[in-house]
Amino acid sequence: MKKRLMLLLAFVLTIGTILSACSGKENATSNKEGKDGQPYEIKWYTIGTPQKDTAKVFEEVNKYLKEEINATVKMTQIDWGDWAQKSQVMINSGEPFDIIFTNGTEYVQNSQKGAFFAIDELLNKEGKELKEAIDPSLLEGIKIDGKIYGVPTNKEAARQTVYTFNKRLVDKYNFDISKVQSLEDLEPMLKVIKENEPSITPMATFKAYLPFDYVFNNEMPFAFAIDGDREHVINQFESDLAMQTYKTMHNYYKAGYLKEDAATSKDSWPMDVENWFVRMGDSQPYADALWSRAAKYEVVSVPAEEPTTFNDSVSGSIQAISATSKNPEKAMEFLNLLNTDPYLRNLVDKGIEGVHYEKNEDGTIKDLPARIERYNLPTYSLGNHFILNLYENDPKDKWEKFKEFNEAAKPAPTLGFHFNSDPVRSELASITNISKEFYPALATGSVDPEEYLPKYNKKLEEAGIDKVLKEIQKQFDEWKSKQK
Amino acid sequence: MPKKLQTQSSIALSQSTNDMKGAGVKILRKKYRDPQHLHPVVNTIISVLLGILAIMCIFPFFYVIIISFTSEESIVRNGFQLFPKDWSIDAYHYLWGMKAQFFRSYGVTIFITIVGTIISVFMITFYAYAISRPQFKYRRFFTFLAFFTMLFSGGLVPTYIVVTQFLGLKNTIWALILPLAMNAFYIIIMRTFFLKSVSESILESARIDGASEWRIFFQIIFPLSLPGIATIALFSTLGYWNDWFTALLYIDEPNLVPLQSLLMKIEANLEFMRQNMDVAIMQSSLFDTIPQESAKMAMVVIATLPIAVSYPFFQKYFISGLTIGGVKE
């Protein structure tokens, strides 16, 4: 037995030495790259379905980059559905690469873990122009413990929830949608639709919206009020607003305005099927035009709230530099160029002029079939929108409207505050489970809030919600005091 | 050779049962009952039960075929139906449009299945044979080594590090083959099989006749152990054919994606779309290329059909392979 153990130990030790020797060597050799005049190859992972013409376009990109910053880029796309798992394994394994797309909680967690490179200093040197080009509220919002860990995409920084209507039906029954401000205002219209349009579901399944600033997301009971007391975290399900909203929703549900399986349905209500009257969505300037184009019939929206800059609306798309990058400066130089140089930005996004798109005389562009079939990249994930060429059917003032939208938005109370959930992990786990059970049923009106909302809150209390609220408040106060 | 043998023996077998039946009827007309004969009522009940079970197994696949011929519009409006209002072959038309990727993935899957199974069978039998022989001094240690990995595994991230950074297999076809080639469980099965089915005296006689170790393995051990080898070959064939996870981890290149992984990708993309409607709508042109419900089902049909159709033919070999050695001492 002893002998066997010794053998095993010896074996493990040998493997250990071999492994560490291997990795050591790799670091030593690759450190040299890019510093002796050879162009450094930047490894870039981003989201989206891999495209057939990527190699072709990046040949052009590299030609340009070699001249500008003596670097080349190898871009690899990871498919939408694979993204979450694959990127996480890559990051956890410490694989050497330079730039990676990230967003939302994934960004916050990986930054807190130290997977990304803090770029504050780089932003003052290599990324100077970039820093000027990007909306300051975006950079402010993605700060984690006072440091910036990625380059946010310069686009709409705020979020505005809207009610979107099927325009054909609005016109047919002469509804005045401009007066819609709350959920209650929808009632008379829903009634008419229900009575006269049997093939239309009056409300596409949505979860009634409560206008709060959420610490996690809208199904977790931790929120700050946007108007009024912005300093204290509350459980929004205890507010009168929640009771009132869910009561209305329950009435709608009982009246048959929603599908019966609303609470459990996974139906995404694709826009191009015209079987709905009203739905909820997040808006941006000219969203109606965009949606109408996707739907192939007219839709029209009215805002349900003022545009507000939230944590999740600023962290929707970020390119981060990996902590495993061997040359973060070069990576930053590339990101700087990608976000400030219109030629490079359009090349990466739209492909090669004449092959993937055509330029009209007035500077607007038109996609050629090759762009859709062979080089269809997700614009939102790549970089600065405001230096992109406009399409011929885009409104001329599109980007100006975006800037106005961003400026008009007011910051949410927790903009830039990222809660560290380690101290209350077990409480949060049980609260998540409780919320998963109650929230969908309540928010779709499937159950009576008079009965279930108190039940929900009672269960939350038993799960230790007070402790979590206290912890959030504590961290929030600390963060707030550092701000001044 | 074994094929011929098998047909002969089956003929002999059927003849002998016929004889027996004939004899039974003649001599013991009333008292003798065929032990395989069931009371008609019991027979009906069992037949019905088995029939229901069979339908339960076949029905989902049948349903998938129906959905694949349903028009997308009808699915969105009415959900899945057994008798859809609108039939359409749009889904197959759509698949024909992505035939380049589809056939490529098919090729990858077939290649890794064949090559992978061969490699894996040899690696596993070599290892198992070695640790099954008492002459091998370190057999206990190596048995323990294999056994140890069944209890404790390195986990996802260390495996990933080994495959991508030390072996440098990322984006190569070998990343789809090698990680699945060794399987501790099959090694233990084969070791037991060798221990039980190959007696030491046969090997001794071979050694006396002057056979080398290689010759012993290929000419004596291998034929004697065919049933066991056929079993693990079948398992690893299925393992390779159905594998999508290794491709998810190690493959970025579209032309190395196997079929099952392609299916999983489409499914996962649809799921992503559902959860990120805002992205999906803003980037609608991107998601136009993702097939909808009916096309997904059509893909399942096309990916499964060849296996489903060819399996009955192969099954014959597997069963005969399993029984050949079973009777012999």
Notes on the protein architecture:
The complex is a heterodimer of chains A (484) and B (329). Chain A is an alpha/beta fold. Chain A has two domains: 35-157 and 311-418, 3-Layer(aba) Sandwich (D-Maltodextrin-Binding Protein, domain 2); 160-310, Periplasmic binding protein-like II (D-Maltodextrin-Binding Protein, domain 2, 3-Layer(aba) Sandwich). Chain A has 19 helices and 18 strands. In chain A, the strands form six sheets. Chain A has a five-stranded mixed sheet with strand order 2-1-3-15-6. A four-stranded mixed sheet of chain A has the order 8-12-7-13. In chain A, strands 9-10-11 form a three-stranded antiparallel sheet. In chain A, helix 13 crosses helix 14 (342-350) and helix 17 runs antiparallel to helix 18. Chain A is globular and about 70 Å long. Chain A starts with a helix and ends with a helix. Chain B is an all-alpha fold. Chain B has a domain at 98-327: MetI-like fold (Orthogonal Bundle). Chain B contains 17 helices and no strands. Chain B has helices at residues 2-27, 40-68, 72-78, 90-97, 99-132, 139-151, 156-166, 174-181, 184-197, 200-208, 213-224, 226-242, 245-250, 259-275, 277-282, 284-287, 293-327. Chain B is flat and about 75 Å long. The two termini of chain B are 19 Å apart. Chains A and B meet through helix 1, strand 2, helix 3 and helix 11 of A and helix 3, helix 6, helix 7, helix 14 and helix 15 of B. Chain A: This is Aldouronate transport system substrate-binding protein. Chain A: Keywords: Signal. Chain A: Residues 1-21 form the signal peptide. Chain A: InterPro entries: Bact_solute-bd_prot1, DUF3502, SBP. Chain A: Residues 413-480 form the DUF3502 domain.
